[in-house]
Amino acid sequence: MNTDRIYLTGYRGTGKTTVGRLVAQALSTECVDLDQVIEDAAGKSIRQIFDTGGEHAFRDWKTQCLRQVAGNRSGGRVVSLGGGAILRGENRTIIRDSGICVWLTATPEVIAQRITSDQTTGQRRPALTALTPVDEIRELLVRREPLYREMASLILETDQKTPPQLAVELNRWLGENGFVS
User: Fold this and answer.
1) Domains of the chain, with CATH numbers?
2) Three-state SS across the chain?
3) For labelling, which of 14, 60, 94, 176 has a CA lying 20 to 30 Å from the CA of 165?
């Protein structure tokens, strides 16, 4: 199994970037936020990408940038994926071929509360449906959860744990399973 990268996946608001930064710090590497890589490469926000090209254009950017991050041997070892990165088979292959994947979970209610309390999330990311936040999350998770599960080497439930607790748990698991020395 290739362990060059440690990918964090899960729905928006599960703590991928925050936990990723803490894990990267403990490993003396950097955390790459794939959404930030996309915005930097596109020269516009994710919301602007959606506005001008729709979800398909955004997913194309995600695949292109994931391929770049996975192939960059000098870049950060921890990668915070966007919540929908696992939707494309090509992306799942890139992730599987270049590292391990950790799935951060939370209930739809907790996710919705986290997203609505984070003002930058709403400005940066559009809703994907016309449903209420909790109903949108439930609907999208029906499609995404089997893919998250398929990809996950480890599942971390985030509802009742802080990012530092999750980072400690993940780092312990990485050490116990020989992914870090």
Assistant:
1) 5-173 (3.40.50.300)
2) CCCCEEEEECCCCCCHHHHHHHHHHHCCCCEEEHHHHHHHHHCCCHHHHHHHHHHHHHHHHHHHHHHHHHHCCCCCCEEECCCCHHHCHHHHHHHHHHEEEEEEECCHHHHHHHHHHCHHHHHHCCCCCCCCHHHHHHHHHHHHHHHHHHHCCEEEECCCCCHHHHHHHHHHHHHHCCCCC
3) 94
